[in-house]
Design goal:
Elements lengths: L5 H31 L4 H14 L3 H6 L3 H6 L2 H14 L4 E4 L6 E3 L2 E3 L4 E4 L2
Antiparallel strand pairs: 1-4, 2-3
């Protein structure tokens, strides 16, 4: 049996061992980069708003409003409106589902947030 020159043996080892590892590393990097990439600012704000609403943290909800919305309603009026709506609806719990993708509707960006409310 004829042995191959050392340079050829070395090259073959690199191809059969290092190349697959390199490919796996590239795929792992790509998956990690895509999973770690930040979401849209609108979706992040909607998620914070929903979490604050579920916790009845009206101040945090108000902070997520854009400037135009905050100019039209005061923090106190905003909180009072949500409290009154919860009372009228006899709201016990509020659970939010997975947020939808942001959608531009005219001059506003809307993020759908499915919600399930329970009352007595």
């Amino acid at each position: 049996m004829k042995t191959l020159p050392l340079a050829v043996q070395r090259r073959r080892r690199l191809i059969t061992r290092a190349l697959p590892l390199t490919i796996v590393a590239i795929i792992a990097f790509a998956l990690g980069a895509s999973a770690g990439s930040p979401g849209s600012p609108e979706k992040d704000a909607a998620e914070r708003f929903a979490l604050a609403w579920a916790n009845k943290d009206f101040g945090a909800m108000y902070r997520e409003l854009n400037e135009a919305s905050r100019r039209t309603v005061s923090r106190a009026d905003f909180a009072q409106a949500y409290r009154e709506a919860a009372e009228v609806a006899t709201l016990r719990t509020l659970v939010f589902g997975e947020l939808g993708d942001p959608d531009d509707e005219g001059s506003a960006t809307v993020v759908p947030i499915p919600a399930e409310a329970t009352s007595p």
